[in-house]
Predict the 3D structure of the following.
Amino acid sequence: MYWMRIWKASRTRFLYSRFDDRHRTDIEKKGTLEFCTPKFLFCCQELSVVRMHIFSVKTVSGWMRMKKTLVGILVFDMIMGMLCLWAGGKRQDTTAPASQEVSTGKIAEEEDVAKKIALTFDDGPHPRYTEQLLDGLKERNVVATFFVTGENAQNYPNIIRREQEEGHLIGNHTYSHIQLTSGNRETFREELVKTNEILENITGEKVSFVRPPYGSWDKSFEKELNMFPVLWNIDPLDWCSHNAECIAAKVVEKAGDGDIILMHDYYDTSVTAALEVVDVLQKRGFQFVTVEEILFD
């Protein structure tokens, strides 16, 4: 019998084990604890120095006799592990398409629900720019809402008729673009009534919607005149800009489902920007509708 030192690479000390001379050759061939441990099925704790048990020839022989049984168990475990991995892979393959189908169906359902948005124009009609705008909207199969002044409607009735024939909604924007104040309520009311009469004579239909200039409104008019005020939540201030791209960018950046966009058909840059807005938002799945559909649908 003898003591043999086995070096462990991750420690600066030694691990000791005592073996019979008959096993000296095996130890020398293996050379490290990591190789010896599988052969004798010996596990040591993580200590700086571990003194292994002294095995007699009989003890070692007993371990050797268990070798075939243990190897058989290990082989069985390996086979079962591979079967489990194979079964798991098959399950993932069969369930993945179903999950993908459900996810795709959900996305398709969301895409089917179109986002609605209303494009509105104030101050017209303009003898040139409104016609250009109507041409662009017709080409894109888009409807809008026009809040016209009575004065311009009176001057260009044919444009009002075209707006009606092409499916656009026409609303009241007072006769002279007057702003309601605390001191001109009656004058403001008279302008609303006058403009309604002008539009009814042109279109043959009653006017239900009004956009009060600058958003100034008296709720008592709603019951008094049976009219609904329509404000807005997107205003690119197109009337004070000559940059159509900048105007369009402001609208597109803020656009959302159910929004009402305020623009003017009285400026060439506004018309260019409006058609650009339509092109971009249609690609994003927006459907352009009149304010009536936004407010009451």
